[in-house]
Amino acid sequence: MEVGQKVYLKPTIYNRGGKEQEYEIKSIGRKLIHVWQDKRESSVIKFDKDTLIQRSNYSPDWQIYFSLQEIEDEKEFNFLHSQLESAFRYGSKDKFTLDQLRQIKRIIDYIKPIKYPTEETVSVDTCICPYCGHEFDGKRAINSDLDKRLIDCSKCGKEMEVYPSVEYMCVSIDGGEEVE
């Protein structure tokens, strides 16, 4: 986060009729971030630096995002979540076979949230970058060369070690330091 950086504001439920807008960070203080749209004091909006919640005497009208992709991802997440919720509401017993429910249960049981960067990842059939979490084909990454140890992530470009076996274990070289 730096002065001059573009940010995107999305209206909250309290901001009826508001639309997503591009702003710019005007200043960053100890506690507040000031953003503006057209360099007039009247258009400055303040956000708490730690929580990223708009500072206001009333309910916050805006949420701050650092990319449009974050907003799109949130929209997709909410849509998919809603679809899944509705699929399991009343009368859902007739919608799924036992095999489908077992598959869904396996997916739910498999979910283990990982915070990236992390020191290492372990996966069957794929590599998972310990820096950014990008999943890719491990066999292709090492070009089927079981002696190959260093590869680059195709997403973040960071170098990692890979230890192919029945599983692919990717280990960060620098201990999982922050990626900018």
Descriptive report:
The protein folds into 3 domains: 6-66, no CATH class; 69-110, no CATH class; 120-172, Rubrerythrin, domain 2. It is flat and about 60 Å long. It contains 3 helices and 11 strands. It has helices at 68-87, 98-110, 138-141, and strands at 6-11, 21-28, 32-36, 45-48, 62-65, 120-124, 126-128, 135-137, 150-152, 159-164, 167-172. With 180 residues, the chain is α+β, with helices and mostly antiparallel strands. A hairpin with a 3-residue loop joins strand 2 and strand 3 (32-36). Helices cover 21% and strands 29% of the residues. The strands form 3 sheets. A 5-stranded antiparallel beta sheet has the order 4-3-2-1-5, covered by helices on one side. Strands 6-11-10-9 form a 4-stranded antiparallel beta sheet. A two-stranded antiparallel sheet has the order 7-8. 12% of the residues are buried.
In short:
This protein is an alpha+beta fold. The protein has helices at 68-87, 98-110, 138-141; strands spanning 6-11, 21-28, 32-36, 45-48, 62-65, 120-124, 126-128, 135-137, 150-152, 159-164, 167-172. The longest helix has 20 residues, at 68-87.
Q: What is the strand and helix layout of this fold?
A:
Elements lengths: L5 E6 L9 E8 L3 E5 L8 E4 L13 E4 L2 H20 L10 H13 L9 E5 L1 E3 L6 E3 H4 L8 E3 L6 E6 L2 E6 L8
Antiparallel strand pairs: 1-2, 1-5, 2-3, 3-4, 6-11, 7-8, 9-10, 10-11
